[in-house]
## 1
Amino acid sequence: MKTDSKTVCELRDVTYVYPGEASGRVPGGTPGRVPGGTSGSGGISGQTIPEASETVRPGTRPALSGVTLRVREGEWLALLGSNGSGKSTLAKHLNALLTPTQGDCTVFGLPTNDPLNVFAIRSAVSMVFQNPENQIVGTVVEEDAAFGPENQGIPTEEIGRRVENALRAAGLLAKRKKPTYTLSGGEKQRLAVAGALAMDTPCLVLDEPTAMLDPQGRRELLDVLRSLHEGGKTIVSITHRLEEILHCDRAVVLVEGRIAWEGSIPGLFTHSDSFRKWGLDAPPLVSLWKELRTETNLPMPEVPTLSGMTDSLCRLL
Amino acid sequence: MSITVNGLSHTYHPGTPLETLALDDVSLECGRGEWLSVVGHTGSGKSTLAQHLNGILFPERGTVSVDGMEVREKSPRLRDVRRAVGLVFQYPEQQLFAENVLEEISFAPRNWGIPEERIAALASSALSLTGLDETYFPRSPFHLSGGEKRKVAIASVLSGEPSYLVLDEPTAGLDSWSRRELVSLLVRLKGEGLGIVLVTHDLDIALQHSDSILMLDRGRCVIMDTPGKVMEHLHEHPAPGLHLPEIAALSASLRNADPCAPLTWDWKELKRWVVKRALAAHPHLPGGDS
């Protein structure tokens, strides 16, 4: 990673407290209950659209505390953390859906707390959320992908070009005339990505985009992200699945609203003992890699990808 | 006591240009306390098969029977069949309808004519099986999280006291945590003596937990055998649309390089073999403690 690359988004000592907490009002009743989400026995948090739920318990602590972070142009940054670690709150700072309670947040140098900057910021950073069902607005695939640029006031011909490119990148060009309800979950999520791409923003932020997808859909979406990254797009992916960050450039781990660790992907995997403490989900392949690495001296790849593990182990035989 | 399917075929839209043979000569057996997984690519006939198991669809050719009761149109035992086989559709939370969780879960037993005084107890025990407690009773099912909604939907089938549970892609759309919880619920139900028929394309779950796996391709049975045998089959004949889980894929690649490598989906088993094999091949390498 070049250190002199341009900064896309920057957070300086950002603290964020959800409004309900500051005013003493607690949404949903008793303090300590997770509003709109789970209480007790787990389950999914219902994280869908920005205002639908917040996974931070009011009355306990700020959602973000003293977060300083720079997203560099062209990098693929993984934002990791368990439920309630503040990763979605942080993501929403990247395109001014939320603004810091304390500290500064800028996108391409523009402070996000100035309402006059919001249009420019949202034209620079687009977001894709978790639930594909909640992000489709059009009845036909290409109409849906055109929604963003239409709202940006882009000329019609240009919209046509952008939509075509976006659908091609998302692998949906063949389905451009199909009704959106005929798409599979994975296709819908790729359509959400296409919609964001059609806005032609230099930076794409994805908040747990694979959480609702099956293994096939997950793989398809990650393939799309990889090729976008190769094409130079700045990507921030939020996830708690370690197998999805193997192709990223850098990882940031959030624990209770603070940055617990930051560094390269191979560097992250040298801290695999902390995964549990950080609330990260280690897939079986990572467990195998970790034990072979720590309990034996067998040469292992730096990062536990399936192809890397296959190569290393086949070479041993 | 089992669900038994013999030579089952089903054609959609017979005699029209849309005629499709969805199931072609499929047979299976799943006893109480057993777990059968039905896997296959989208469109392989999995859901059509599931719908034959409690009389939503009827056999065109072949037979389906549940604990000896034949499933056919206008059979006087159809009600008993439907009571014995609980069916959980894909996205079961879309079928939630009641004002509160208690009403939701009481619907099935009330429908089966179970006396009112027993219903509350049945509802409690069905809900507690899923890991939720009675504090959920007064809550609206629509205000629960995705994972909780699905549990309530499953509890509303369990409260009818079925002997078998047929689930069509129950983990679709769940995050990894909720998925794990759902799988451990199925393991628990199997332990309580329920027969589980799981329709899924998640080979990870199917390999780890089934007693047997039926693999369908374009309506035909490709193989029905133990997870080990199915894994061997998939190694020799990769199936489009069915991806091996990572550990299984790694173990399959190792098998290609060394015929002694285990074909397994269990990372600990694979690790034991790798350590042993690497030590034998490269004694100069400092080996592991294991």
Note: Chain A touches chain B through 40 residues (CB under 8 Å).
## 2
Amino acid sequence: MASDPSISASAGPGISSGAGVGVRSREEAQPSPSTGLGPYRLGLRRLRRNKAALAFGALFLLIVVLCLCAPLYAEHVAHTTPNANHVTDTVTVGGVRKDVVSPTGQPIGPTWQGRFLLGADQNGRDIAVRLLYGGRNSLEVGAVATLITMVLATLVGITAGFFRGFVDGVLARILDLIWAYPVVLLGIALGTSLALGGITIGPLEIQGNSLMVPAFIIGIVYIPYVAKPIRGQVLGMREQEFVDAARVGGAGPLRIMWSEILPNLSSTIIVFIPLMIANAILLEAALSYLGAGVQPPNPSWGTMISDGIRLIPSAMHLTFVPGLMLVLAVLGVNVFGDGVRDALDPRAKVRLEDVQERAEVQR
Amino acid sequence: MTRFVIRRFFSMTLVLFAISVLTFLIFQAIPNGDPAQRMAGRLSSPETVAAIRRTWGFDDPLWQQYLTTMKKIFSGEVISYTQQVNVLDEIWKDLPATLSLAIGAGIIWLFLGVVFGVLSAMRAGGFTDRALTVAALAGVSTPVFLLGAVALYFLAFKVQLFPNGGYVPLTQDPLDWAYHLILPWLVLSVLFIGIYSRVLRSNLLDTMSEDYVRTARAKGISERRVLIRHVLRNSLIPIVSLWALDFAAVIGGGAILTESVFNLQGVGQYAAESIQQLDVPPVMVIVMLGAFFVVVLSAVTDVLFALLDPRIRLTG
């Protein structure tokens, strides 16, 4: 939702405020005299103290590992595959034989045992198996989309900010253009048109029902939200002494961008990654819900919710199981990402404590 | 000021043109396969496809196809081949529901976003702040369609407190109109409230370290008054401009998920139904008009803000 999380003109909570990660010159990045530790060591130390962020990060990691084990679970515990149809089968629950899908079309609920642990859908497919395979797809789309966004946005942001002038003019206009579309709208535009025909990028031909189509779409849609802040930082950075020093030392533009500018952007990039993963998973779910994302019969959390939503009154597990998993995964990355931002942006932390102190004085 | 307006208007026109080109490319040139076949939908006869290829000029050069497409859209001649209805008429018919949803939700999320943001900043680091942070994170981590489905299940199906979706025109029964919209309004607002309260909180904390705030405190003004009269006033500007953009995006089709889960017969719902049937023409027209609306409204807000704050004129 960006509201549709993804719908909003603002990409997410962290993104607008995430720009606060300061532009650090080499000088400032030197180990601070009081501790003798570098900024990343300090950041790690701060992150380690943030138990909530670590716990939620672990939760996300757990979900990732579970989803990666999907084939093991399917083969050894559930004895089925994600798209296998068991409509006419029966399953024994507590000594009673039950239809997987009743003659009236009512799918079985959670059995809390190996087969149909979390119930079946109206096609007699095992929900638990689909949940794990679907999670694999959702996470894969999220990871690939984040990779596309981060690589392209960093490239565009650095190029635009470093060369300024004409190059910047063109790139900034393109970013503005993508930015003008509401996120979900651009997503469904690309999703609808590509789902039917697929796309050819250079030598790569991608089929319409491939997982890479939603990943590609989501990756493109979010580029401006990352590229714009990076461009702003590079604009400020290129005026600083360490860039001048490198230039005097005979470094060409490529070398300056690669070994002077890029390392100084790393904390911004690190802060954006968890946020983009969360947003990408949410947008995948939204697009799949509308039918413009992962194409059936491929499971994903979004398609599972979409399949189940009309049957909520009679079989709410179809919606709530993938829904809960989706929310937990996204919440996990979001809270962890929030912690990473706090850890790498000490300025905000100091400010917060400062205010806290002041508030106490007031009382 | 006049120069600013003219410049803004000029750049807006350029963006509108670029959007029309990009939308055209997305739907007709980028995907593989036959555009006429795509236009016609899944169950089409070869004759329909041939007719579509002729009327849309898919054998012409690309620039001519672009001109044909724009002419069709702006003269309101686009027809959805799956349903055989005029797309623009349909959008016009669905507009009231979308506007009702957007306006109500916009007011709610701006108001609650500001209230929660101020509460958070006043007690930064305290219990209220922490609780609101957790709530905001949960809010932005929940897809709106899931939240809507859960709300409908518990509040409309289990406890029959609210109607089970649907839209009643304002002109028909204002009370019933609001009654049907309360849940969609709240559900659509949740994510925005989460974002706005976080953004406002950090803006407020930023502003609090400014010199004039210290001066105000030094004069002995109460902390509450400093926050409301001095700090909040300045921190609201970015919030309101963010609001204008998000509001435009919601009207321009951003509420598609909310409309679809609550079965509100609005523009977004129309788009959602069209996607399910892989009916391309309505999706194309809605995407383009939606993006147009966002661009025009953001230009209008820029001009309004320039009227209010002279500094923007110089930098913009």
Note: The first strand of chain B starts at residue 79 and ends at 80.
